[in-house]
């Protein structure tokens, strides 16, 4: 489904991602793990078309999207939830959601149907449809940005640190929702610092350190073989 081959990303002379390769199969939930500064967000931004690759290739369902713009990437079927969790604070929840559907703006019936499905998945957003998004709690804003990404009807969803800065009870809810999305058949690439939670939902994981992939395997293999504290806590 998603095939990353020898991908490099640089900021001037800083090489943030150094020739990494990994795959995410159809319907799989793959996690990209690593300490601060390992290069996870740079990888996600590059796949999303927000950063230019300095080498390598990105293929989605056999189609080369390495040089695609963010909009072209969304049109190809890949939606991204960045770690910045940006909502438009003065727009209502409903208006924020409709912005996620801009590539389908002529298909109003399809958008309504998708919105109904998302309201079932995120009842809190349905209750707060007419409320300015800036008045939502942090956890609700995270739900909103995930739902907004799903309004583009992606086949692959990239989630960058969805649990960042949220209370443990809310983190539980976010991970339950990620599991529900996986069960619905969505292909997911999940970047997380929350290693235990990520491995609990992931089929496979890749561990990044200093811009390179140092370990990969099933969630059980990663738990069993790698020294998590060394990779994640920088020890
Ligand atoms: N805009 C930028 N300009 C220069 N260097 C950058 C920029 N963004 C990231 N970097 C550098 O690239 C490297 C990888 O950063 P990146 O944000 O991809 O890591 P990360 O694994 O996502 O970490 P975090 O979890 O803290 O976001 C770091 O050394 C970082 O300082």
TrEMBL record:
- What molecular function terms (GO) are annotated for this protein? ATP binding
Instruction: Tell me which residues make up the ABC transporter domain.
Output: 2-235
One Pfam short name: ABC_tran
Q: Where is the signal peptide?
A: none
Q: What SMART domains does the record tag this protein with?
A: AAA (SM00382)
> Which keywords belong to this entry?
Amino-acid transport, ATP-binding, Nucleotide-binding, Transport
**PANTHER family the record matches:** HIGH-AFFINITY BRANCHED-CHAIN AMINO ACID TRANSPORT ATP-BINDING PROTEIN LIVF (PTHR43820)
Q: Which family is this sequence assigned to?
A: Belongs to the ABC transporter superfamily.
Q: What is this protein called?
A: ABC transporter ATP-binding protein
Which species does the entry assign this protein to?
A: Shinella lacus
Q: What is the lineage of its organism?
A: Bacteria, Pseudomonadati, Pseudomonadota, Alphaproteobacteria, Hyphomicrobiales
């Amino acid at each position: 489904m998603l095939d990353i081959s020898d991908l490099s990303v640089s900021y001037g002379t800083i090489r943030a991602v150094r020739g990494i390769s990994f795959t995410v199969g159809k319907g799989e939930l793959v996690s990209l793990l690593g300490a601060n500064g390992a290069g996870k967000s740079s990888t996600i931004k590059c796949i999303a078309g927000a950063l230019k690759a300095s080498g390598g290739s990105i293929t989605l369902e056999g189609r080369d999207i390495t040089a695609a713009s963010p909009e072209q990437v969304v049109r190809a079927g890949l939606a991204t939830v960045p770690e910045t969790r940006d909502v438009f604070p003065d727009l209502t929840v409903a208006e924020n959601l409709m912005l996620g559907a801009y590539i389908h703006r002529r298909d109003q019936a399809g958008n309504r149907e998708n919105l109904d499905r998302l309201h079932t998945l995120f009842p809190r957003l349905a209750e707060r449809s007419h409320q300015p998004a800036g008045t939502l709690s942090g956890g609700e804003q995270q739900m909103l940005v995930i739902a907004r990404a799903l309004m583009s009807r992606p086949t692959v969803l990239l989630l960058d640190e969805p649990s960042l800065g949220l209370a443990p009870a809310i983190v539980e809810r976010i991970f339950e929702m990620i599991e529900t999305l996986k069960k619905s058949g969505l292909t997911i690439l999940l970047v997380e610092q929350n290693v235990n939670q990520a491995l609990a939902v992931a089929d496979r994981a890749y561990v990044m350190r200093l811009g390179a992939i140092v370990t990969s395997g099933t969630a059980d293999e990663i738990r069993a073989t790698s020294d998590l504290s060394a990779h994640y806590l920088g020890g």
